[in-house]
Design goal:
The complex is a heterodimer of chains A (246) and B (325). Chain A is an alpha/beta fold and 246 residues long. Chain A has a single domain, classed as Rossmann fold, CATH 3.40.50. Chain A has nine helices and ten strands. In chain A, the strands form two sheets. Chain A has a six-stranded mixed sheet with strand order 6-7-8-3-9-10, sandwiched between helices. Chain A starts with 9 loop residues before the first strand and ends in a 7-residue tail after the last helix. With 325 residues, chain B is mostly helical. Chain B has a single domain, classed as ABC transporter involved in vitamin B12 uptake, BtuC (Orthogonal Bundle), CATH 1.10.3470. Chain B has a two-stranded antiparallel sheet with strand order 1-2. In chain B, α2 packs antiparallel against α7, α3 crosses α12 and α12 packs across α13. Chain B is globular and about 55 Å long. Classes of the chains: A alpha/beta (246), B mainly alpha (325). At the A-B interface, α2, α3, α4 and α5 of A face α8 and α9 of B. The structure holds adenosine-5'-diphosphate and magnesium ion. Magnesium ion binds next to α1 of chain A.
Chain lengths: 246, 325
């Protein structure tokens, strides 16, 4: 596992967000090492998507600090955070309805490249993610799975160092998840760090280097997958009585 | 810039159409030449509005402010301070661009939705009209009369309808080129991304305010230039024409009927509807004034119900399907 012991690429400290009377995220803190795949799990409504919003600049935290490569990014606009190397996908896929797949990915590549190079870069990324065949389709006409891979492609096209993926494999069987997983591992091997929210436990167990468990907005565990399975608090909160088939 | 832009510049069809249009003042009877000038002015207005309304997807009704600045303010500068209209036009274009940036900022700061944006820009337009009507410097309710046109180009005088036809042709072609350049450049991608989905746009690094402000500034400056040309053409700066949102609403209707997004929709719709409207007005204006508005109204209902993306995108779809089958 290529985990460096230098400065973490992402460092979240004491981050909180309240929606009215609800503490959606409550004093959550964790570090992500470069090259790591960190999975965040937790029941529905645990605050995972909100946490992604807080890190990526879409939601301003009430308290706490988020550092990307040592720089405080709380209060920065999302597009500036993207320029610094952090990008995210959305759980509810957000397509550019009036653009083709290639155009959508080109728009993302433009963040770092001039026009013609961006088109070339977008073509490369689509090739790599396996979407080349549908490059001229409208994103709206794609299957849910292709839409989710398009989300990944848009992220990758921005040349990020860290990608936050929000349930890109939700609804897939383990067999169907093989391909996206292989792509993610390949991207990790090329130097991209991942934080992913995933529900399907076997996928998480197979892929993640570390698991962070959220429940009612609070971090209740942060450990390698094997340890998480034996953690009583996690069992109680998340798995109930039933153990996942890892 | 994508290569498509240069492909267009090199395509003979574009130059043939332009060359043909440029001969029209030589053989069109004066009445029709007048309609031609008006059509070109509307094409230009629809195209410059399309940058914000079509590419950016923001229904701005504040464009009457920009048209008004170009027409009324430039004329006031000439009449009250003797400032040459060429210079005045540039000052007005810059002023309009600044106002456009201000409106983009308000939109960003208060996170206006589509409806609020349309309503607030309409409110700005109404305020602008009140300012013009109430301020003598800008001519008030009685308007401003420009000095007679002696064909002195240095004084922004283009002689008769012929000269204004060529001027309007140059401006309309310029607006088309700007549209096409934007579509094939990063700004066009950013605007379309923002129009389709602001969150997703930001997540791939697109700055909302910056790009909306740039689009507004370009669109506003072009509209102001059109305002100056239009005012000089009609020589009487009527506040109820140049400072009222009515013209812009007409432009929005025309552009929407044609289909927003590409420059072709607004252009083709203006090319068809303005002469049609003028002919109706010329022939039935006495018995049924405002009939052409009724026609626009009916058309917009028909188009929105039967081809929501507009006339030109629909025609292109049909042609693509023909070719495929
Ligand atoms: N914008 C919002 N306004 C109010 N409540 C919200 C908002 N976003 C999320 N919530 C609430 O915060 C909690 C956490 O939601 P979320 O982060 O989406 O959870 P998860 O992704 O873990 O399922 C939920 O109870 C949700 O209803
Ligand atoms: Mg979620």
């Amino acid at each position: 596992m290529p985990v460096e012991h230098s400065q973490p690429i992402l460092s979240v400290k004491g981050v909180s967000k309240r929606f009215g009377g609800l503490m959606a995220v409550s004093e959550v803190g964790f570090d992500v090492a470069k090259g790591e795949i960190l999975a965040i799990i937790g029941p529905n409504g645990a605050g995972k998507t909100t946490l992604f919003g807080l890190i990526s600049g879409f939601i301003r935290p009430d308290m706490g600090s988020v550092r990307l490569k040592g720089h405080e990014i709380v209060g920065m606009a999302p597009h500036k955070i993207v320029r610094m190397g952090l990008t995210r996908s959305f759980q509810i896929v957000q397509v550019f309805a009036d653009m083709t797949v290639l155009e959508a990915v080109t728009a993302a590549a433009l963040v770092r490249k001039p026009m013609r190079e961006a088109v070339r870069k977008a073509e490369e990324v689509l090739e790599r993610i396996g979407l080349s065949a549908i490059r001229n389709e409208s994103p709206a006409s794609l299957s849910l799975q292709d839409k989710k891979m398009l989300e990944v492609a848009k992220c990758v096209a921005t040349d990020p160092e860290l990608i936050l993926l929000d349930e890109v494999m939700a609804g897939l069987t383990l067999a169907e998840a093989e391909l996206p997983l292989a792509i993610i591992r390949d991207l990790r091997d090329s130097g991209i760090t991942f934080v992913m929210v995933e529900h399907v436990m076997p996928i998480v167990m197979k892929t993640a280097d570390r698991l962070l468990v959220l429940n009612f907005g609070q971090k209740i565990a942060d450990a390698p997958p094997a340890e998480i399975l034996s953690n009583q608090a996690v069992r109680d909160a998340y798995f109930g009585e039933e153990m996942p088939h890892a | 810039m994508k290569p498509e832009f240069f492909t267009l510049l090199r395509s003979p069809a574009i130059w043939l159409v332009l060359a043909f249009a440029a001969t029209m003042p030589l053989w069109l009877p004066p009445y029709y030449l007048g309609i031609g000038v008006l059509t070109l002015i509307y094409i230009a207005m629809a195209l410059s509005w399309n940058i914000v309304g079509g590419l950016g997807g923001q229904i701005s009704l504040a464009h009457s402010l920009f048209l008004g600045v170009g027409a009324v303010f430039t004329s006031a500068l000439l009449l009250k301070f003797g400032i040459n209209m060429w210079v005045g036009m540039l000052i007005s274009a810059a002023l309009a661009a600044i106002m456009g940036v201000g409106i983009a900022w308000v939109d960003f700061r208060f996170k206006l939705g589509h409806l609020s944006f349309a309503l607030i820009t309409l409110a700005f337009a109404e305020i602008g009209e009140l300012v013009v009507l109430g301020w003598d410097f800008l001519g008030g309710a009685s308007g401003l009369y420009l000095p007679s046109d002696k064909g002195d180009l240095l004084a922004f005088q283009f002689g008769g309808a012929k000269g204004y036809f060529w001027l309007a042709l140059v401006i309309a072609a310029g607006c088309f080129l700007v549209n096409f350049a934007i579509i094939n450049s990063p700004l066009g991608y950013y605007l379309r991304a923002i129009r389709d989905n602001e969150n997703a746009a930001q997540a791939v690094g697109v700055a909302l305010l910056r790009n909306k402000a740039i689009a507004m500034a370009i669109s506003a400056a072009l509209t102001a230039i059109i305002g100056t040309a239009y005012a000089r053409y009609v020589a009487f700066v009527d506040p109820y024409l140049f400072a009222s949102p009515a013209v812009v609403i007409e432009v929005v209707l025309i552009a929407t009927i044609g289909g927003l997004g590409t420059p072709f929709g607004p252009m083709v719709a203006a090319l068809l509807l303005v002469p049609f409207g003028e002919l109706i007005r010329g022939n039935f204006g006495g018995v049924a004034p405002g009939l052409h508005y009724l026609v626009y109204g009916v058309l917009i209902v028909v188009v929105i119900l039967s081809m929501p993306r507009g006339l030109v995108p629909r025609i292109m779809d049909v042609m693509a399907r023909r070719r495929a089958s």
